[in-house]
Records
---
Amino acid sequence: MTASYAALATLLASLAVIAIGLVVSGKRFPLETFATAIPRVYKIRMGYFVVLLGAVVIGLALTLPTTPYPYRFSDKNPEIVVKVSGQMWSWSMTQDSTEGNLMLPVGKLVEFDVTASDVNHNFGIYNAAGELVAQVQAMPDYTNRLFYTFDVPGHYYVLCLEYCGVAHHAMNTEFDVK
Ligand code: CUA
């Protein structure tokens, strides 16, 4: 949807540029016009520059303090914390106060604390339809926090998305969301 809006906007902007070009190319201006026009054009260009610079500075000021973006949820206090560790070639996923099979709730913010005990892996969560819903790098000596709210109950699969050796393809696990 967004892509087709972007394509339409690009098309309209291109047509506008072509239309302006056609109108201007059909006109003849005496040479003196340029002497007065150039300073005006430079002024307009400086105005655009100031507006763009302001937009960039405001945009950065608003968004940079919230990076890395997943941490913007950290003040929401996730209700569930799952410790995830990758090792060649399996995943361990443990939830506070839960023994046995992992079961996550629908509609609650879940924090996955993801690390690895040997080499780099990638923790990728897939839904039952085989669509990737969330992923984060699993690195030794570092814990990545992945925040996700499951809106759809069902069976989910975890696949490793970083090549980590001969059995990388078998580094899977699964869990349920109810
Ligand atoms: Cu672990 Cu690929």
Note: The longest strand covers residues 80-87.
---
Amino acid sequence: MNFYKKILQNKTDGIKSLSVLIDPDGIKENDLGLIVDLVNAHDVDFYLVGGSLLLDDKLDQTIQFLKKSSDKPVVLFPGNEIQLHQDADAILFLSLISGRNPEYLIAKHVIAAPRLRTMDIEVVPTGYMLIHSQKPSSASYISGTVPLPVDKPEIAAATALAGKYLGQRLIYLEGGSGATRPVSTNSIKAVRSAIDIPMIVGGGIKTTEQMHSIYQNGADIQVIGTAVERRPETLREFAKVKTEINQQFSQI
Ligand code: 1GP
């Protein structure tokens, strides 16, 4: 089954998913091996690979390592049009719908599209929404866009709905990598009630309590990067939350 079909199937069946974000720049080689072992041994669904700005040219090396060491899908989460790789299984083709910068709404996509066509990877149209956190995020700075206000869930809901009407297959609510705290409950709930397509939430998730709350408020998929990068072994606890939530659901 392809990547998006699986996500859709999970959503229909009420099954929650978990992804680990691998930023090729942010991860030490030994830690990457450890994280992959943990992902292989626990209930993690797929890898996201990418970053707002990759300085070390380690995308190829990272993807090769993941493909060699793990059966879990490797999905590109590109910060720009050069973060493409033909060995990935899929790409989140991100349109930054919270922003008003045409470069990140369509222009980089025009440059990437012909190259993507030559690669045998699944393209998943994704509405990407930055939500204001306490500090400015790299994604907001690099994209030159203003994130959505944290206390205006109705704007987040309208943006997600517009994304859905424009044909996006996923909506990604992003608090920013390393955010002080995750996207607010109000924004998650408002977006959940506005759209029926799968919703990803990421940015600043550090505790199992936060994970519980984010799933319960309607996220289908959570993405954790920094917390796992800093302490890989926390992945065990995060994966356990997802397993428990799915078990509770299957018993209802
Ligand atoms: C960033 O949503 C991801 O794009 C993950 O964020 O690094 O804060 O977990 P963290």
Note: Strands lie at 17-22, 46-49, 74-76, 90-96, 122-130, 170-174, 199-202, 221-224.
